Each structure stands twice: as structure tokens, then as C-alpha cells.
Amino acid sequence: MSRYTHYWSTMDTPPDRLAWPRILRDVRKVLAAFNDIVKAKHYTKSERHVTQTIEFDSVKPTPYSAFVLGLEPARFVCCRTLRTEYDVPVTAVLLVIKRHAPMWLKITSDGRWVDWEPARTFLRAALDYGDEDFGEAKKDFDELIKGSDEEFDLDEFLAAMQAEEVADARP
Q: Residue 124: which domain range?
């Protein structure tokens, strides 16, 4: 079975107060549409009863990893889908988040931009997204893998993330 994983990081400043509810609304629609493939584990809420974390997993017992994304800054998070049916809801959720909070989330993948087409097709049909809604995600692919036809280089990604952390630590 080949390795196939999606990676992301989030910035220190969370999405604005209008973006997060929109993200949650659209993510719930995605998860509902794929309820035969994924199960929401739970939504963590703060004292104000605002969902702080999106977490789901495959319904099948598999080597896939759970999808977990919260409002806390995260330098390196990943979700293994192994190019299975679980891939579509995972990539759709990442595209939803990138659409509503483009500067907060940075995404990439072991795959190519073309591999995310099933998620884009779903979002166009189910949530009425247009091609313009995917522009920022495409920029992440182009920036991190130097073109949408190359495979993702994990070592290069980790080096870039480490360089960002060093730059952030400087006074």
C-alpha cells in the first residue's frame, strides 16, 4: 500500500469571527454527505460553546489517520488517506477551510493538484463553490511543490516549516 498523506499548518492568528462559523457550516455539510465514509468523532467546544476542533475518521478500521484541526496554531499536521474513498472528504474539508480562511491554513499533499479534483467536483455540486474558491489552495500547491505535476517532497516541506519556526522565534 503506497503512502499518501495530506499536510497542513495553521498560523498563530485564528480565522476571523465570521470565517470560523462558515467553515463549520460547510464542513458539517461535507461530513453529512460522506457519512458512509467518515464519522465525526466530536467537536470540542469552549466556554462560549463555540466549536474549537474539527475531528473525524474513516468508518472502516484502517491504517488511515484521523483528521484533526483546531483553532490552536499547528506547525505540522497530517492525515493519511492512502488514495482511498476517505481522500475525498479529507481534501474537501481542507478546501473548505482554505476557502474561508486562506491566510490561516497552508496545505499540501503527497499527491498533485489534479488528485484533488474529486473534492473540487463535489464542492462545486454540493456547496455551489466556483473555481475561484480554490485559487488559494492551488497557490499553496504551486508554492510548496514548485508546480502541480511534481510529487510532494516531505523533507523540503519540513525544512520550510523549520525555517518558519526559526524566523518566528527571532526577536
A: 5-169
Q: Which of 97, 100, 51, 99 is nearest to 77 (CA)?
A: 97
Torsion of CA 94, 148, 127, 32, to 10 degrees: -40
Number of domains in the chain: 1
CA distances from 150 to 109, 114, 123, 147 (A): 11, 11, 24, 6
pTM of the model: 0.80
106-129: average pLDDT:
94
**pLDDT tens string 75-100:** 889 999 988 899 999 999 999 999 99
* Cα 27 from Cα 23, distance rounded (Å): 6
Tell me the sheet residues that pair with 45. 51
